[in-house]
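lol ok so funny story. i was supposed to be doing the assay writeup but got distracted and ended up predicting the structure for this chain instead. priorities right. anyway since i did it might as well share w the group, maybe its usefull for someone
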Amino acid sequence: YLARHPAPEIGLDVFARNRSATAWYRRLGFEQRTRLGWWISVRGVRAATARPPAAVAAAAARQHRAWGFSQLAARTGAGRYQVGRLYAPFFRLTDPRAAADPDLLAALARLNPRRRLLLIAPASSAWPGRRPGWEQVAQSRRLRARSAVLLSRLAAARQARRVTAPAILELENPEREKARHLL
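and the output, tada:
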């Protein structure tokens, strides 16, 4: 993929409890950039009289039907936000201010009152679940690696795998089966 779509860096998120995945990514050159908290609203957004702009709602609906997820831009008197619509039942927010903006929440409720809110924001933000109606459900690490480092380490791992594979074929059958899952 990187050969066809060059990028200086690659980023990903891994859940904080997944220590083995975190260790593997670090061996590949990934470094932690930040820690994120994941909070879910206990109940759906409450309906009010505000409505999202019709063109925004229609575009988001088309994208959602085509791909199963969508994102829309929202602007209120308090700010501008990107809101993701994930599979039911969530609207995804990445800005703690969005989760506290009554105009945005009213517009989302008009769009779909049954959806709940998923806030993914820096764990160090002022938000953390200290507000009623929110529950922290997870933490993740946002990791980044330089593409050149990642590709180099993947190539080395691939080469090491080629060298050890023929030796495994020489083992007796039961030992071969035990060793094969390590590759």
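The beta strands are 9-15, 31-41, 70-76, 79-85, 90-93, 116-122, 134-146. The chain has a mean pLDDT of 79.
back to the writeup now i swear
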